[in-house]
User: Fold these one by one.
Assistant:
Number 1:
Amino acid sequence: MRMAGRFGRVACGGTFDMLHKGHRTFIRRAFEVGERVVIGLTTDGFVKKLGKPHPVAPYEERMKELTEFLRREGLLDRAEIVPLSNPHGPAAWNGTVDALVVSRETEPRAREINRLRVEAGLQPLEVVVVDMVLAEDGLPISTTRIRAGEIDREGHLLIHPTTKLKEGETKKHEFTGKEI
């Protein structure tokens, strides 16, 4: 059911580790197109299966950070956070979801979900694709890059942890010109 240019209920999902500018943009877009938003937050068990190239904060920590963000944005009362323990989540079987919000990176997953829905006798979902948010260097902001020390949560470039400066040497940030 579509309401005033928006969907009644949309679903989105993610790990949302080290909630960053890309995550925040993605989540805000879900609330722009949906009156209610079901957010699937990957469980610790599912994170292990994903084989992330870095440690991931525990579910409860990620849940707390996500909830705090939604509260600050005034969106918590329109959100339903559910554990996501598989790649398809409730969108694959829930007949009350009208649309799916995905990142460009996970767009193929939306096609899988719609295939599963049709097989289950449900209507395919409308799919809203959100482009990746780019860091200062033009590459996507990601938790992997943040944990590697390449960028901060806003996409600003940082000195890579393997960069060694001589005693007393300073370096200026490539884009801001500030000393780092």
Number 2:
Amino acid sequence: MKRIVVPVVLLASLTALLLGTVASGKDASSSKAGVSRYLVIAPHTPEECLKALDDVNAMGASTLKMWDFGCKSGDHTGYLVINASSEEQALSKVPASIRDKAKVIKVTKFTSQEIAEAHKQMNTSTPPQAENK
């Protein structure tokens, strides 16, 4: 029973989040304060591969679409980029069977201006702009 309840609750939560995003017409990252972008890396062994894929699939089609896998290339790892309010929320999108091996990394994008500002703060010269060839 417990094995069924957790995926159902996760699927219902994800569905509610997606429906709210679609209804508002906004990207999930811009609609809620405190939402960050996370990269989730979930390795598994070749022996665990089909179970890991089955477990992600059991979380629902929308969750499965969010994942990329390197398994066909011999890299038995699932990769997920997700907007979430915490590392724990991002990790909740990983099946329990491989969650203990997963790594969650908060990621950000930088603008050219932010990089230039970082150089100014470090009292270093700004590197030359990339050349267009």
Number 3:
Amino acid sequence: MFKTKRSRFFLALLGLFALIQLVPYGRDHKNPPVSAEPRWDSPETRRLAERTCFNCHSNKTMWPWYSHIAPFSWLVQHDVEEARSLLNFSEWDRPQEEAEEAGDMVREGKMPLWYYVLGHPEADLSSEEKNELIRGLQATIGGHEREGEEGELE
């Protein structure tokens, strides 16, 4: 009887997994066109931003294999949509209200998100690379250091 209940549970779980694949949200992996990028202060800043930020904060998202499988597709689509609404390096011709905070977010360790780095080890920057990205973001899009804060990571 125990094996039967366990088998039924796993069969029901498998059926539920198959059913949620029919939910369309998170399946539209078409990137909108790039309308304008910022005037980068250097190719290195752009390269670092592309490596760490573009998958969520641009229209150049590289959709990983798991972004096609629910429920992961829902989470990935939601995160990309939210990130693009806050800062989108591919739509620089529209207001970017959060842009000036980009360097501070990197400095404070809030970006890139820890769980993003788990799946994207290329986004795990060394201290030197983080400092270069922070400096480059501030030179490219502005922002200011808050009084009493150092500009670099230790």
